[in-house]
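Quick log. Single chain, no ligands specified.
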Amino acid sequence: MSDPEDDSSSDTDFEPSTLGTKEYWEDAYQKELETFADIGDVGEIWFGEESMSRVLRWMDRAKVPAEAAILDIGTGNGAFLVELAKHGRRNLTGIDYSVASVELARNVLRAEDLADVTVKEVDFLNCHGELKGFDVCIDKGTFDAISLNPNSSKEDKKLYVQVLKDALKDKGFFAITSCNWTKEQLLDRFREGFEFVEELPTPSFHFGGKKGNTVTALIFKRMC
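-> predicted structure:
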């Protein structure tokens, strides 16, 4: 574990990318919104369907109650909310800072006759204490996007952790899937206020005699 004053291991600089900007996602979801209206295609599922399935399997193993309050951070097209609802989850909230994303997710949920799922236009880093009392928070690429934002800073990542702690109940769970951060870096980033629970299996590759993973999926528990 690194020294708390030394952020070198957890704040490895990434090349800034438009994938980290609100403008990129607003444009992307506006196009997906129009496509859904035309042909009913919900658009891309970030990290693929298996990324949702592995979290759903973990919920079953962990015996997360059907009525547990679940927050999908950066819900995008709402596809994960649909899968959660189809698997019997009854207290679901999705948030996104993209207006087009929120409209798309609501339309997708309406098409699936899932009117009880809540979707809100909320910027996670600027929610001003609006998000409280969740049993499970799920992040599938949002922390990655924050890290790729050209205007992102170490303070943004620290703020993310604080907002997450505020949103979760004590001993609530956090499921994160990332293609940018390694297991070690995520353990370091969420070392304060969280306990590591387990790593979920993800696709691996071999190169130069070493084994690696294309994505990292970890479960944490919020502690006092």
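The longest strand covers residues 168-178.
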